[in-house]
């Protein structure tokens, strides 16, 4: 199987220049899936954009997701007939659109699809994430069939978490990429 392309799926408002996703994009040439509207994320629009990008790839892809990007992956996988194009997903700090402070901005993202993902995935959750409790992150991991990693008290696992280039995340990604393919889901 050819080496999968790495597709960066940022969350709401995208990932700024200090975010580990942006740093990976600059350091390694990973490809960001650009959304048409980062400030008013509509689930259907974001799903369609991800589908378009995946169909444009010449081989398999690994999705590198943060926050709303994790929910995008679950929503896309619950509707697409092209899930075979994804070899795996690194799901970092999923957002929770059912939190009262997020409901207005993310109303099209509820309910969160809770079906098993048809590809291998690792989900990292933080004990003090302001956008998703660790209990809720664990529940997402269980529902999606993802390996859960307790990442300690690291906030939203973003630029504010002080991760820099986040080599530990890159190691988890390498483990995900090396451990199987779309044929060996968790």
Overall description:
The protein has 186 residues and is an alpha/beta fold. It has one domain: Rossmann fold (3-Layer(aba) Sandwich), CATH 3.40.50.1820. It has 6 helices and 6 strands, in the order E-H-E-H-E-H-E-H-E-H-E-H. The chain has helices spanning 20-28, 43-56, 68-79, 100-103, 134-144, 167-178, and strands spanning 5-9, 31-32, 61-66, 86-92, 120-125, 147-150. The radius of gyration is 15 Å and the shape is globular. The two termini are 19 Å apart. Mean pLDDT is 94; it is low at 181-186.
Key phrases:
alpha/beta; Rossmann fold; six-stranded parallel β-sheet; 33% helix; 16% strand; globular; disordered C terminus
What is the helix tally? 6
Structural class: alpha/beta
Mean pLDDT: 94
Helix content: 25-40%
| Sheet of most strands | 6 strands, parallel
Biggest sheet strand line-up: 2-1-3-4-5-6
CATH H level, superfamily name? Alpha/Beta hydrolase fold, catalytic domain
Number of strands: 6
Work out the radius of gyration: 15 Å
CATH fold naming: Rossmann fold
């Amino acid at each position: 199987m050819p080496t999968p392309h790495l597709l960066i799926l940022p969350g709401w408002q995208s990932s700024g220049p200090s975010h580990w996703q942006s740093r990976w994009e600059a350091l390694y040439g990973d490809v960001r899936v650009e959304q048409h509207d980062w400030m008013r994320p509509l689930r259907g629009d974001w799903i369609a954009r991800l589908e378009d990008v995946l169909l444009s790839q010449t081989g398999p892809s690994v999705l590198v997701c943060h926050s709303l990007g994790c929910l995008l992956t679950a929503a896309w996988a619950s509707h697409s007939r092209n899930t075979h194009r994804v070899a795996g997903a690194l799901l970092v700090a999923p957002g929770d659109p059912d939190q009262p402070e997020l409901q207005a901005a993310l109303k099209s993202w509820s309910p969160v699809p809770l079906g098993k993902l048809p590809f291998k995935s690792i989900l990292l959750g933080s004990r003090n994430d302001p956008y998703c409790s660790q209990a809720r992150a664990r529940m997402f991991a269980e529902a999606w069939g993802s390996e859960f990693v307790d990442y300690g008290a690291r906030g939203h696992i973003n630029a504010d978490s002080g991760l820099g280039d986040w080599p530990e995340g890159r190691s988890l990604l390498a483990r995900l990429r090396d451990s199987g393919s779309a044929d060996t889901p968790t």
